[in-house]
Specification:
The protein has about 200 residues and is mostly helical. The protein starts with a helix and ends with a helix.
Length: about 200
Amino acid sequence: MNLPNKLTLARFVLTVLFLVIFFSRAPFNETFALVLFLVASVTDYFDGMIARRDKLITNFGILMDPLADKILVCSAFIAFVGRDLVPAWMVVIIVARELAITGLRLVAASKSVVLAAEGYGKHKTVSQIVAIISVLLLVSYPQWGRWGEVVFGFRVFNGPWVFWLTELAKWIAVALPAISGALYLWRNRQIYMQDL
């Protein structure tokens, strides 16, 4: 098994560890969850970069890399609903978009059509990762004592600045998937309209 595929598999393991730690009652659990999510996000960057650079692209990687990304991101957002950190309706939009695009790609594959990812998809993923990290920062910085309060807790508009960053990031992480998903479905409508 090559290194990019090992990194992809590691992302599945890191997702499970992230969820276990996030819901545990251990001291500094949110901080450890933040670190695990950051490591998982870095593996996402490096597995693709190494696979392209060293020409190690495999069918396993083509299938499992985007699946690992979706599971990581969707698991984090669903976990946030369980802790009342993100409204459920936002997560429904995010997860529904992922399911709709995956379904469209499956229909296309059944017709021997390969649908490439678009630039909007990359921006969507970055916005979701930023939103997840900002939520984790918001809940973990109080565990860091005075240093955390100074860096992340100084107040803007009657709340810590990281709260406002998190609110903005959540809205962007919902808007970009909704818009990019709608555009992707519209541009590729001939694939599913034939079967209606």
